[in-house]
Amino acid sequence: MSENKLTTKEYWETYYKAQHTDRSHIVKVCSFYNQFWDKLVEKKNTNKSLIEIGGYPGRYLAYLASEYGVKTTCLDYNSNVSQIEDAFKTMGVEDYNIINADFTTHEPEELYDYVVSNGFIEHFENFDEILDLHCKYLKPGGKMLIMVPNKRYLRQVYGYLCDYENLKLHNLKCMKQSVFRDFANRNNLITNTLQYYGGFPFSVHQKLNLFQKIIYKGVRFIFKGRVNNYLIKHPSKYFSATLIGVFEKPKD
User: What is the residue range of 68's domain?
Assistant: First the structure.
């Protein structure tokens, strides 16, 4: 399945190479999704098992281990595990596991109470197949949380104008609720939550020319502050940053 990947190992190792993670940064980024973590992990400090698919550089895993008391495993093919280890160290977590492997070919050696996938499936052409592979890791009675960016509608136009290199690394076809409803039906999963979330993300991943700077500053002026605060409370598929689903596998 590797030929269906839109990114490479080298891309991700370079992407996070200059990132410096401290505790306040991890907490700020990860706690933004607390309402969804609460739906995934209903009872804290039970030491249940959780795996993140494509978990590099580890900040979500470190946060969940620290704040929710789950025993976490990171599955990722990036060879630089030091970033993952640093995230756990920053959050004071000592009990964790790292599986350095390619998810598309790896066979799970155990099942987990929780499976998390954040910003992963949209980097594949065959996203339905990748989604289905997630179920191989989930225990009966377990829960799965999947997040993908929402780069359709206004964000797609904005991406073409100001962030095209990043846009083309994402498969926009998977960024629909219907994709996840079909996924749940195929795999006999219960859908607990499926919704868009967040404000409009105006940050870009490239240097901007004068024309692009004008667009960027205009979009930033419109959405930063009140408009994005409104969108967080009233999410929209046309503007909100993320599509999030929480699913449950029935017990045998």
Answer: 2-150+171-198+241-248
